[in-house]
Amino acid sequence: MPEGHVLEFSGVTKRFGAVTAVSGLSARVEPGVVTGFLGPNGAGKTTSLRILLGLVGATSGTATIGGVPYAALERPLQSVGAVLEASSFHPGRTAANHLKVYAQAAGLPVRRVEETLGLVGLADVGGRKVGGFSLGMRQRLGLAYALLGDPGVLVLDEPANGLDPEGIKWMRGFLRELAHEGRTVFISSHLLAEVQQTVDSVLIIAQGRLVYQGALEDLADASEYATVVDAPDRAALTRALADAGIPFDVLRSGLTVRGADAAAIGAVAASAGVALSALQRKGPALEEVFLDLVSGARVHATMADAAPEAVAVAAAPAVAEPEPELPPVAEPEAGVPPVAEPESAASAEPAPVSTAIAVIPAAPAPAGPDPDDLDPAGAEEAAPPPVYQVAATGVIDIIPAAGNPATDAFADDRPLDADADVEALGEIDDELEAAPNDRPWETYVKTDADREADAFFAAFDPHAEAGDDPRPDDEGGAQR
Ligand SMILES: Nc1ncnc2c1ncn2[C@@H]1O[C@H](COP(=O)(O)OP(=O)(O)OP(=O)(O)O)[C@@H](O)[C@H]1O
């Protein structure tokens, strides 16, 4: 079973020119539980995750996975599965083809493609082009991608976005199961309600600052809660509580008890033989507490040290100044999409990690994937190490490298002749094409994110029209 790792942010600050996206973030994310990373839009969640994943450098502080920065991980895809943007899949490629390319690039066995598609409930549509997928299906595909390397750590940005209630329920159970296996599961959301039943623990940030870290049930102070209890024989109930030394107030609607929870009160009543007519916990809804924390109207007792600053920040929101235009980090290769990560260069702070990341094992020979795990064909190829590029949309893309069969396949979108598995999935695609009543994706209305993704991919794929009609595989042809 893959081992979870502690994720640790230590004093992480990230400034984009005048905007401080993350400010002194220190937090730990433990394995074996699902941890939510909550905050309103613009709070700094994605930036923190990007720093954790080595996609952008921190202005100061460190973020580590199992004690090391992402860039130092020997097998990144087998250690950490991450999805930052579910919509950024090439619309003209099949789900299986996407996964196949990533699997080959990471030296993972091809069987993982079908396995992960099955795990996320996409087994039947693996041969379909992603352009026809609903947002929920894309979320599932993102999860399949994250799971390819069977990693011990999962980092998912807004995984519930676009899922219908059934999908959210499925995702909830799935993520909890992964955590119970001992993995570290870290998911962001701007809605507490969306993840409330999924997460065990939360980090809440507002305007780049941590405003709470801990268990969900400790979000509100215990003192804010009261239990209203009543019984047909109220005199017997008051005697039982008094005998147990539990103080209470008598109201018209019953007795209000503070300082003892409902279970303890119920136990006292039961042992005194008092039948209850009401037993109810009353207090602020978690959503209310969450909103108070992120607006600065409330400071959690555990964050008392940071209180004055946190409140000041909440009261005076930062004004985002336009980021200065920067020269490109590297000359983009022909056909490779430009990387849009407007970083501030005008500082003496450590330079951010380049947006093009070569994921190279630290020690070449022993650091490769397990021989047992390897696709033998892939293992024999003396292919150059995969080079990833971070797209404007947040997805990690593979930069085509001459002679690298994996990246060449991605560039061409040709059927992967060498791979019988993917051809088999291609046949499924044909069957689906022939089933005119089974095409719900044709009614899918693209979101702005979809259109951005389409435009992004179109920049290096002249055949990938932003149109809604997915082309059959064999029309993909050579792209360049
Ligand atoms: N590359 C960038 N250049 C300039 N400013 C940026 C950049 N990335 C993020 N920011 C700014 O940093 C702040 C935090 O953004 P971030 O995307 O991390 O927030 P978030 O909590 O993920 O929000 P959302 O839920 O809307 O994605 C915002 O003010 C944002 O405009």
Which helices and strands appear, and what pairs or packs with what?
Blueprint: E1 7-16, E2 19-29, E3 34-38, H1 45-52, E4 60-65, H2 76-79, E5 80-83, H3 95-105, H4 111-119, H5 135-147, E6 153-157, H6 165-180, E7 184-189, H7 192-195, E8 201-206, E9 209-215, E10 226-230, H8 234-243, E11 248-251, E12 254-257, H9 262-271, E13 278-282, H10 286-295, H11 307-315, E14 356-358, H12 364-367, H13 376-380, E15 387-390, E16 396-398, H14 405-412, H15 420-433, H16 448-458
Parallel strand pairs: 3-7, 3-8, 5-6, 6-7
Antiparallel strand pairs: 1-2, 1-4, 8-9, 10-12, 10-13, 11-12, 14-15, 15-16
The protein binds adenosine-5'-triphosphate.
Residues 16, 19, 21, 39, 41-47, 190, 320, 323, 341-342 line the site of adenosine-5'-triphosphate.
The major pleated sheet works out as: 6 strands, mixed
Structure annotation, total helices:
16
The radius of gyration over CA amounts to: 26 Å
Uncertain spans: 307-443, 461-480
Mean pLDDT: 71
Distance between the termini: 42 Å
Tell me roughly what share of residues is in helical segments: 25-40%
Range of strand content: 15-25%
Small molecules (ligands, ions, cofactors) in the structure: adenosine-5'-triphosphate
Main sheet: which strands, in order across? 5-6-7-3-8-9
**What class, by secondary structure content?**
alpha/beta
What gross morphology would you assign? Answer: elongated
| Structure summary, number of beta strands | 16
